[in-house]
């Protein structure tokens, strides 16, 4: 059993990589690609500023790399085994990585013979390591932004040069330069052209900013190596291999660590499901039991038909009808329309109470339950059919077993046979159903959360997709995939535990 | 021989009569037996009846629910100068091909021919597939040419007068040749005749007989000003049963409750239109007739269910067959792929795919099909694992049959039953998924859909539009329920183990 579980756990890794890769590539290949929502923020700016802003964002989030490279980089971050220098953990809990290298200046061979030398750092002692790190970090960010700004300006100059010199095939349809094609096509800049002069001027500025960025990077690296903050994880071979908690990064669209977002959303979804699943069991198991004992009667058929009918009701329809008739003020208006809490819930007492004026307050707990009524109702009804059918089938299987005949022959009462013998033996496969019910519920709650505007995992996933937020989408895919794989594994293990005839070795 | 001649038992039966086959009942085939068991269950029959109704409207809805008049007489100085049929001119190629296919198919199956019905059914399915592929390809190619920015050669090509007949002809010819090569018929006559006939009919309809009639390559522009012109006395019009098109919009007519008439909806402008038709099920937030949309959405619902399940079964059977037959590392690797699709909630993957891919019906079918195949793959894998050790497979291997033949001709017919039973539930699931995606605003654009209507129910400013919630929702529910009932009945009929455990 132990080897089986270990084997399954190891096989989970390629599956999880497959899941995240599939979803990442889908999002990356979509129109706009990763980070489309970030670029939307620049819609109001004029062209020059927008180019600058976009270049800055692409540099900051690594969006200028091809999608597979971005994915592999993400894998490296979430891998618990890290290679090379260890990250540091800032007091805010964010990961601080060694500074990124500065790229070579754009097409520098066109306007310079060789890259200028980078002046060495002055050996001033570091008095306050934390302050020095923060200062160096800020400075490097500024210099990097300036470097990207000069590159963007140089690109524009190159584009107008290409237009003036009439070089074909180096411009995109939008009028931007294709640097690789330009570098292949052009070896010297014709300075007699007006735009040629500008190219050389901007090239010189670009080189200057490159040198400054290199200096700032050196300084930051020195500050980083002085280890102002504690390091993440622990080393196995110092400086080469270390083990650290996976880093899920910071959401693009909300600038909050992804784990914090998931940490806020997951309890909501779990709450929904942990209320819904016991309800399913409490309804489905007794009715399955009832149907099995009265097999072939009207009750059996009626229960069966009812559950199939419930199973066939689309969740969206149930949600819309419940919202419309039960929650809408123009109809019954018994339940709240959206959200998980009242707007004033923060001021509520925890339990219901009656205050000095004799006014009854429902309190936080009842308020939450009241908000949960409709979503939970829409979540549970589809689950009855499968579970009650399973219970019924398991019971009927056991009715034909020898031990039942023996019990009957001994003169055990019918009630005792059903409840103490048959039901107990049928119970184990029913319990293992939990492992398969749970992933289905997790998926079902996406729609419910959307309809009832509940800030759970479903809403988070939808937001991440709509905003093309790389970190959010990938972390969510990993979370949901891992939960489901563990549930599948748990189901298999529980089957073996419940039924000693099943072995996996 | 004698079994059909006498109803009353004779006094004595001679040995000779017994030898001649007296009293022998021919055993029913496996599927015929299952089918008659399904027909014995009233719930399943009701389900089949509902699916039949939806299918009927999927075929005829363009003819009974259209804002274009059946007949339009143009009048000048009290004289009828011209009579046209805007309804006919605005029909798309599938609108015409579907009734033709339905009629021809019914006749083909019903005719007392010597070829067995199952074989004829296979021919019919292939013909439908060919026609469908031709229409889809023509649509896609046409859409490519209609894009706003096309290269110059495409524009000049498109302006040529013979472009449409030639382009459509090439597409029809290509598919005809493919289907002649892959036909299910043994006899050469029908092997060639059916694909050629289908290709010819499609070409005739799409090009309007090479340009003589109405060509249906480009979708026509819709303007619904017939009633205004009639009120001004320019034309006389005869309308169909439900005189509204699904995409006939008017901001004046938004959210009218069921039973409102056009003139009531227009209020002060009632005099500008002629005639006073009723919005039987009201209108949605864009002022489009709900009933007309629901009828036109039948086609989407039926086709999404069938096509995406077809795709899912094809993918699932192929991958499952490879896993089950080879086992070992093939199984290990491919099962990881299955696991990937099992571990992501289907809806999650679909939402990602639908949010980022182009929004049209074909893509929708493809993505539902590409996500829903894991069930079929697992069933086939389990069956093939059982079958591969059996003698008939071993002997097929020993004879040296090609892998394709072993897998699909010998093993598949023995292991496909659970997949076909499961397909009914997959269809139901696909319809639910389509409704959910359309509800979330990720469905096909410009296509009437039950789910999209449902999304309209949470109207603006907190008003709940009950008629937009109840009727389309009921249609989805009944369709899903029907497929589930048929599936249940089929499963009980086929799987003797589950017979005692029916829901």
Your description of this structure?
- The complex is a heterodimer of chains A (505) and B (503).
- Chain A is mainly alpha-helical.
- Helix content of chain A is 63%, strand content 4%.
- Chain A has helices at 2-29, 36-40, 47-61, 67-78, 129-164, 179-185, 194-225, 258-293, 298-312, 315-327, 363-380, 384-399, 402-410, 414-451, 457-466, 470-498; strands at 81-83, 88-89, 95-96, 234-237, 241-243, 353-354, 360-361.
- Chain A has a three-stranded antiparallel beta sheet with strand order 1-5-4, with no helix packed on it. A two-stranded antiparallel ribbon of chain A has the order 2-3. A two-stranded antiparallel sheet of chain A has the order 6-7.
- In chain A, strand 2 and strand 3 (95-96) form a beta hairpin.
- Chain A starts with a helix and ends in a 7-residue tail after the last helix.
- The relative contact order of chain A is 0.11.
- The model of chain B is unreliable at 1-6 and 498-503 (pLDDT under 50).
- In chain B, 40% of the residues are buried.
- Chain B has 503 residues and is mainly alpha-helical.
- Chain B has 21 helices and five strands.
- Chain B has a three-stranded antiparallel beta sheet.
- Classes of the chains: A mainly alpha (505), B mainly alpha (503).
- Chains A and B meet through helix 1, helix 9, helix 10, helix 12 and helix 14 of A and helix 13, helix 14, helix 19 and helix 21 of B.
């Amino acid at each position: 059993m132990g080897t089986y579980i270990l084997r399954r756990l190891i096989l989970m890794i390629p599956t999880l990589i497959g899941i995240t890769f599939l979803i990442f590539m889908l999002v990356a290949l979509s129109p706009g690609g990763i980070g489309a929502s970030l670029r939307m923020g620049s819609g109001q700016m004029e062209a020059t500023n927008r180019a600058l802003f976009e270049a800055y964002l692409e540099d900051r989030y690594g969006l200028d790399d091809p999608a597979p490279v971005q994915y592999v980089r993400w894998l490296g971050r979430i891998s618990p085994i890290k290679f090379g220098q260890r990250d540091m953990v800032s007091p805010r809990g964010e990961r601080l990585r060694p500074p990124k290298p500065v790229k070579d200046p754009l097409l520098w061979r066109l306007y310079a013979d060789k890259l200028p030398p980078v002046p060495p750092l002055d050996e001033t002692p570091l008095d306050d390591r934390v302050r020095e790190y923060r200062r160096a970090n800020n400075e490097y960010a500024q210099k990097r932004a300036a470097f990207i700004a000069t590159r963007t300006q140089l690109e524009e100059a190159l584009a107008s040069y290409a237009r003036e010199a009439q070089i074909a095939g180096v411009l995109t349809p939008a009028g931007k330069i294709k640097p690789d094609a330009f570098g292949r096509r052009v070896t010297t800049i014709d300075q007699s052209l007006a735009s040629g002069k500008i190219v050389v001027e901007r090239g010189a500025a670009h080189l200057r900013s490159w040198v400054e960025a290199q200096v700032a990077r050196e300084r930051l690296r020195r500050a980083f190596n002085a280890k102002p903050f504690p390091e993440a994880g622990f080393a196995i071979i110092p400086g080469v291999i270390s083990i650290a908690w996976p880093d899920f990064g910071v959401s693009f669209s909300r600038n909050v660590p992804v784990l914090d977002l998931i940490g806020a959303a997951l309890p909501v979804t779990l709450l929904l499901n942990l209320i819904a699943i016991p309800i399913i069991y409490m309804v489905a198991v007794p009715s399955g039991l009832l149907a099995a004992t009265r097999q072939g009667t009207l009750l059996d058929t009626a229960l069966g038909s009812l559950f199939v009918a419930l199973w066939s009701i689309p969740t969206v329809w149930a949600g819309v009808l419940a919202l419309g008739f039960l929650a809408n003020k123009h109809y019954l208006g018994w339940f709240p329309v959206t959200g998980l809490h009242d707007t004033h819930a923060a001021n509520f007492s925890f339990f219901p109470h009656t205050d000095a004026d004799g006014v009854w307050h429902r309190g936080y707990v009842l308020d939450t339950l009241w908000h949960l009524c409709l979503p939970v109702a829409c979540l549970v009804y589809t689950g009855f059919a499968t579970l009650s059918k399973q219970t019924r089938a398991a019971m009927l299987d056991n009715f034909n077993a020898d031990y039942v005949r023996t019990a009957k022959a001994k003169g055990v009462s019918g009630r005792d046979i059903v409840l103490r013998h048959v039901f107990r033996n049928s119970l184990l496969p029913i319990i293992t159903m939990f492992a398969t019910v749970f992933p289905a519920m997790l998926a079902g709650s996406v729609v419910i959360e959307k309809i009832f505007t509940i800030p759970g995992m479903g809403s988070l996933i939808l937001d991440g997709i709509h905003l093309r937020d790389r970190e959010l989408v990938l972390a969510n895919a990993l979370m949901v995939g891992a939960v489901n794989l563990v549930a599948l594994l748990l189901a298999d293990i529980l089957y073996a535990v419940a039924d000693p005839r099943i072995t996996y070795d | 021989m004698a079994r059909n001649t006498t109803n009353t038992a004779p006094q004595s039966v001679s040995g000779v009569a017994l030898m001649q086959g007296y009293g022998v009942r021919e055993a029913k085939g496996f599927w015929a037996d299952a089918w008659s068991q399904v027909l014995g269950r009233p719930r399943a029959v009701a389900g089949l009846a509902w699916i039949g109704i939806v299918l009927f409207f999927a075929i005829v809805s363009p003819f009974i629910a259209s804002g274009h008049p059946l007949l339009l007489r143009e009048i000048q100085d009290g004289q009828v100068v011209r009579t046209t049929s805007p309804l006919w001119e605005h029909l798309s190629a599938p609108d015409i091909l579907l009734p033709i296919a339905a009629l021809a198919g019914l006749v083909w199956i019903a005719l007392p021919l010597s070829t067995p019905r199952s074989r004829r059914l296979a021919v019919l399915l292939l013909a439908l597939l060919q026609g469908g592929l031709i229409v889809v390809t023509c649509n896609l190619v046409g859409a490519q040419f209609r894009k706003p920015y096309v290269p110059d050669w495409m524009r000049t090509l498109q302006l040529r007068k013979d472009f449409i007949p030639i382009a459509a002809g090439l597409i029809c010819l290509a598919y005809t040749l493919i289907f002649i090569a892959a036909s299910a018929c043994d006899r050469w006559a029908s092997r060639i005749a059916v694909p050629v006939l289908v290709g010819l009919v499609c070409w005739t309809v799409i090009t309007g007989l090479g340009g003589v009639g109405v060509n249906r390559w480009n979708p026509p522009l819709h303007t619904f000003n017939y009633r205004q012109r009639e009120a001004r006395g320019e034309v006389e019009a005869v309308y169909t049963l439900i005189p509204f098109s699904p995409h006939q919009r008017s901001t004046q007519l938004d959210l009218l409750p069921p039973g409102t008439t056009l003139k009531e909806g227009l209020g002060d402008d009632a005099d500008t239109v002629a005639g006073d038709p009723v919005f039987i099920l009201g209108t949605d937030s864009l002022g489009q007739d709900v009933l007309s949309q629901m009828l036109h959405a039948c086609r989407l619902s039926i086709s999404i269910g069938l096509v995406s399940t077809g795709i899912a079964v094809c993918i699932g059977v192929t991958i499952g067959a490879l896993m089950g037959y080879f086992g070992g590392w093939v199984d290990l690797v491919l099962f990881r792929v299955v696991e990937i699709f099992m571990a992501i909630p289907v809806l999650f993957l679909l939402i990602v795919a639908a949010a980022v891919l182009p929004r049209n019906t074909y893509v929708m079918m493809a993505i539902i099909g590409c996500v829903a195949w894991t069930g079929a793959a697992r069933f086939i894998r389990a069956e093939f694992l059982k079958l591969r050790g059996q003698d008939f497979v071993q002997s097929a291997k020993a004879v040296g049959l090609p892998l394709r033949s072993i897998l699909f001709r010998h093993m598949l017919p023995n292991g496909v039953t659970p997949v076909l039973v499961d397909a009914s539930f997959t269809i139901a699931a696909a319809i639910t998924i389509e409704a959910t995606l359309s509800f979330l605003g990720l469905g096909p654009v410009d296509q009437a859909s039950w789910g999209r209507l449902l999304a309209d129910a949470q109207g603006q400013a907190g008003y709940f539009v009950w008629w937009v919630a109840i009727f389309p929702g009921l249609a989805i529910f009944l369709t899903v329920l029907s497929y589930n009932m048929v599936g249940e009945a089929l499963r009980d009929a086929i799987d003797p183990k589950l017979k005692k455990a029916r829901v």
